[in-house]
Specification:
59% helix, 135 residues, mainly alpha
Length: 135
């Protein structure tokens, strides 16, 4: 089995998940003394409190994009936007522009929310070229 750098973290998280799963199932295969003692010294009360705690919805706030804030671009919409900004009917011609002109158009396209991958696919430019220009 080949492991990446993050594999130990994932394996640990998987282990912790399995431990919690065993605790919720009232299994005796897992030593639950430490975790249950956090909730209560009485084992039965602690088990009830633990189960209740694990079923609560989290109140964490995450940096999720707001609904509708990310526009998904179809290939046709990307081509239309390129046409609007540069007057090109064929986006592949963008690769023949002078570097400064090409980069300016790519930056404008990124500003309106078109992804690097989409720009690369539609224009025929390498992804690394688009990325270098727009980062």
């Amino acid at each position: 089995m080949v492991l990446c750098k993050a594999a130990p973290i994932f394996l640990r998280l998987k282990y912790l998940y399995l431990v919690f799963k065993e605790l919720l199932a009232n299994s005796l295969r897992v030593s639950s003394y430490f975790i249950l003692n956090i909730f209560n010294a009485n084992r039965e009360k602690a088990r009830l409190q633990f189960n209740s705690f694990m079923k609560q919805a989290g109140q964490d706030t995450f940096l999720e994009p707001e609904e509708g804030s990310i526009k998904e671009w179809s290939e046709e919409a990307v081509i239309e936007e390129i046409n609007k900004l540069s007057g090109l009917n064929d986006p592949k011609v963008l690769s023949t522009y002078k570097k400064e002109q090409r980069d300016e158009i790519l930056l404008k396209l990124r500003e309106v929310g078109i992804t690097i991958r989409q720009l690369s696919e539609v224009t025929g430019l390498g992804r690394s070229v688009v990325e270098r220009v727009t980062r």
